[in-house]
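Sample entry (405 residues):
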Amino acid sequence: MSDTQPFTLLCLASYEKGHAFLLEAKRQGARVLLLTSLSLKEKAHWPAGAIDETFYMPDVDSVWNREDTLKSVAHLARETRIDRIVALDEFDQEIAATLRAHLCLPGLDETTARRFRDKLYMRRTAQLAGIRVPEFVGLLHNPTIHSFTQRVPPPWVLKPRLMAGAIGIKKIATAEELWSVLHSMGDQQSFFLLEEYVAGNVCHVDSIVWDGEIVFRIASAYGRPPLDVSHGGGIFTTSILPRASDLEQELLEENQGVLTAMHHKRGVSHTEFIVSRETGEIYFLESAARVGGAHIADLVEAASGLNLWAEWARVETATDELPYRIPPTKNLYAALIVSLARQEHPDLSSYGDPEVVWRMDEKHHVGMILASPDHDRIAALRDDYIKRVAYDFGAVLPPAERPTH
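Predicted structure, serialized as tokens:
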């Protein structure tokens, strides 16, 4: 049996994503294996030439059976040396950690992966490290939950511990409503947490980490909190913050504290904070050991020139002998605008300013990225485009943001 095969990556993807990762891993000379959902076999369009072998797992709603997956990968490893296992999707992180532990491979171990996946665990980890978090309680012990509702005034936010983004999050107005919801949950109650609602602006820091050092980070602010957009509709925006501003520096410092507390050693991260409207204090919300969704990677690339998916592949294929080196970056400002549209194929031809560097091509969606060295120009153009998009494509804006023409 030959041991001369190239460095081999096994990539897990229960959803189709990470094309740039796969292409760059192949460009770096890796042998790329893909383990994906059987339900994607006829639907997904993986990049040609980037994948050496594809394996399929039967799934229910894109979820694989843990024991079957473990046995299948162990069987594959009998004849194929696997050097790294990478989870391209949030929901593959835990099984990837289990596989690494079983095959004794480097990368996020099961404890570290749990910190990034479990919103309750990550809050406790951050709190123990002295990082400010909203008041919270795990929905484990009813007397403790009752004490929380007496101590922390509503509204509260009910969050699934193991979901991503704003999925499954619900705002709770009263204790009566809370206990009614918990009663309806039955045995699912322990898989949720309750959190103080902090009104403010939500920001995110996207990072690349090599050997425990953050070698790249960039801070941005959402126009409206993603939770508000997902529940109430409207236009999703996020924009690069002014560099060297007080807010940017504070967010970068908080991000350093979070990733240190989480013991993140190599890879990428997407970490979110909220800046209290009342006090100006920064609270940690959540962090993920992956590339941010909702086209945030495209925003970062427009501003910095770095594709986070591709850089993540370079991190995973780097070695102690040939360590990862961050390539030269740009220092532009960028803004991302995304909205549903009533038209199946929205016409963006009238959005022709030279700052428009990317346009979304997706049915019933309109999306653009603006980029320029001038922060004020991007901010003004973004605000104008938000109103135009609402008028041209039927996006629903909150009353205060609706155009008057």
